Amino acid sequence: DWIMRDHIEEAVAKIREQVGDEEVILGLSGGVDSSVAAALIHRAIGDQLTCVFVDHGLLRLNEGDMVMDMFEGKLHAKVIRVDASELFLGKLAGVSEPEQKRKIIGGLFVDVFKAEAAKLKAGTAGHKGATFLAQGTIYPDVIESGGAKSKKAVTIKSHHNVGGLPEQLGLKLLEPLRDLFKDEVRELGVALGLPAEMVYRHPFPGPGLGVRILGEVKKEYADLLRRADAIFIEELRNFKDEATGKTWYDLTSQAFTVFLPVKSVGVMGDGRTYDYVVALRAVQTSDFMTADWAELPYALLKKVSSRIINEVRGINRVTYDVSSKPPATIEWE
Ligand code: XMP
Predict the structure, then answer these.
(1) How far, in Å, is the centroid of ligand 1 from the Cα of 215?
(2) Residue 274 belongs to what domain range?
(3) Angle 181-63-259 (CA atoms, 0-180°, nearest 5)?
(4) In the structure, which protein residues have their CB atom closer than 6 angstroms to any atom of ligand 1?
(5) Residues 134, 157 within the same domain
(6) Is the pLDDT of residue 148 over 60?
(7) pTM of the shown model
(8) Rounded to whole angstroms, how far apart are CA atoms 281 and 276?
(9) Which stretches make up the GMPS ATP-PPase domain (predicted)?
(10) How many angstroms separate the alpha carbon of residue 160 from the centre of ligand 1?
(11) Which of 39, 217, 274, 277 is the most exposed place for a label (fewest CB within 10 A)?
């Protein structure tokens, strides 16, 4: 639409004016905010932007490839993909306490990103270094960091974020989404040509599957979880609610699969199985501070359960989480 096109023109002009002929680094996570920021800045300054995508090995099925296909393949943006999965899995080995896991993942993420950003800042022979760090900060983030969060007495979960990085790196900050609400960021993303499926995705936590595998994180668990979760999400997108015509993916605020590192007995064909359990989690919420578990249709749960058990060898039991927040949280860790 025309209003959005004007808005893009204005934002593009502002970025060009601010950046001039300098170089910009952006941390791309595959989430909505960093993706829209990348698409917008790329529209404005093209190859003066370099995206750094740190793959911690705790992403969903094919997620890393999808990010690369979109930004490098379709938008022709410069993207450096850092495959740090072995580093993350190595440091997580033997660690099962949720807060400790969160701190390891968050800390390593910052280290890996900083190392990459420092190289880009230094530049190479014949190529000057970057002077800006772009972030997908949106208006609600600006408000949140202003007060409410710091007043909270108890930390339930230490959130993974990258506050303070520009100062530490000695880079100037570029935040083109700072005045926008989430809905506006999504509309902007669609207007910039990002697929609606990407822009309207459920939120995904920074520590990724690291907080959806209970206890110790192992590659074997992550691989099983990725496949089970992909089936759940696929069926949520397939099943439509008759009354509204919407898919169950769109009718839920967040839905995912949790890996439980316990084994239970099952039977398959003539044989006994002794395999892992997963829990499906789907919630409806307006602010993620409180949430109700979603009353998914039985037909959908039945399909997901039978597909996971038949298609993912190693999982023989599927459960559905019927806990609301509070007292449960949305993620299990
Ligand atoms: P909980 O589990 O606290 O989650 O009810 C509330 C919302 O926050 C998301 N979440 C995170 N998001 N970094 C993030 O960016 C994190 O470390 C993190 N931990 C939880 C969670 O997915 C839900 O949407």
Answers:
(1) 17
(2) 212-320
(3) 100
(4) 156-157, 159-160, 203, 205-207, 254, 288, 325, 329-331
(5) yes
(6) no
(7) 0.94
(8) 17
(9) 2-201
(10) 9
(11) 274
